[in-house]
Amino acid sequence: xxxxxxxxxxxxxxxxxxxxxxxxxxxxxxxxxxxxxxxxxxxxxxxxxxxxxxxxxxxxxxxxxxxxxxxxxxxxxxxxxxxxxxxxxxxxxxxxxxxxxxxxxxxxxxxxxxxxxxxxxxxxxxxxxxxxxxxxxxxxxxxxxxxxxxxxxxxxxxxxxxxxxxxxxxxxxxxxxxxxxxxxxxxxxxxxxxxxxxxxxxxxxxxxxxxxxxxxxxxxxxxxxxxxxxxxxxxxxxxxxxxxxxxxxxxxxxxxxxxxxxxxxxxxxxxxxxxxxxxxxxxxxxxxxxxxxxxxxxxxxxxxxxxxxxxxxxxxxxxxxxxxxxxxxxxxxxxxxxxxxxxxxxxxxxxxxxxxxxxxxxxxxxxxxxxxxxxxxxxxxxxxxxxxxxxxxxxxxxxxxxxxxxxxxxxxxxxxxxxxxxxxxxxxxxxxxxxxxxxxxxxxxxxxxxxxxxxxxxxxxxxxxxxxxxxxxxxxxxxxxxxxxxxxxxxxxxxxxxxxxxxxxxxxxxxxxxxxxxxxxx
Length: 522
Hints:
By secondary structure, the chain is α+β, with helices and mostly antiparallel strands. It has 16 helices and eight strands. The protein has a four-stranded antiparallel β-sheet. Strands 4-7 form a two-stranded antiparallel ribbon.
């Protein structure tokens, strides 16, 4: 509307209304054309019906049968409480699997999905039918051309049915539940319901086949027998080890040997202490004996026979000798008897000489010397006894230590066998339980007991699912058609450079209008 060399002033509301009023017919025609196109599209839009079915995914059959397998005292903390998200997603994948759809198409037949329909008798449905047939023929012609120029691949009716079922099938999990909702959309409610029923039936069979394990019972049975034989072998080795050592309880025997070893060590330490004390005492007695004379001078008016004193000394020596021999040998041994015979002989001579008295005695035995010598002899005997006792304790300690070492080596073997038996028992219980579960699962597969259940069978609605969409599209089509008409009017105004009012002349040419002549009509 603007001319070169002129300044365009701002557009006022009057100008906007003028354009709308001037192009009112154009706006109405464009709006009617667009709205008519929307009506034709809605008229030709294929009706779509929806069939729905709901499937509940329950806890796995292992959870259903485990209580019957486990003993009452067994812990059941490993049993799952609910269905995992992964299990539900796996069932959705099985439902949407192409192989399942192919089975359904094969079962129903490709012609089931694209039946030949007869033209209706009513006028409007007949027109609609004929238009659809014409559009279908056009699409077929275009498809044949594309196939001829190698831009498209020809597909069979079966493949076309499979692809169409895949496009119309959808599965989703209902929020906060273990229910899967299966939705299938098709142009006929009867076909949609029949197709969904076939898919659900085939899915139940496929579910049983998917979760069936025909090789598991044989494998588990073999494992149970192997572990059972290994367990019996370990138990026999354990019993043989106990019989070989004649020990019923290695722990008690080891505790007993440790206690005896501790006692022997304490006695050995005590004997060493006593031996040291006696050795010190014996050293002192020997020093004292060296400082004492054996005989001392005795002055008497009358003295007994000196032979009598020598006999007494001889008797004392024999008594000491007897004590030594008794400490080394038994009282009935030959050395002891010989000493006793000598003592009897000395006693008999002593009794003979006791009546004879000498005129005087000038020397005699030292009593201190004799007592010291006696204590020294007794200490030597005690020292010899302690040495024997110490050697005996050393022998006992060595025997206990050796037996304890052997017992420890056997104990290691015992612990190894006990650990092996424990592991074999746990494995045996585990595989036995799994074998029973597998057998129960096989039985349930035979009876077609599964952990999924159809809670709502396939049902199709009588009202097309796209009916609400049609109403919404119709409303939006009216608004859009009006908008397109207005846009078309302003576009025409933009490309039209004619002056249609005195205001246009004044605005765009800068000239005053003195008079105007109306266009002659007719």
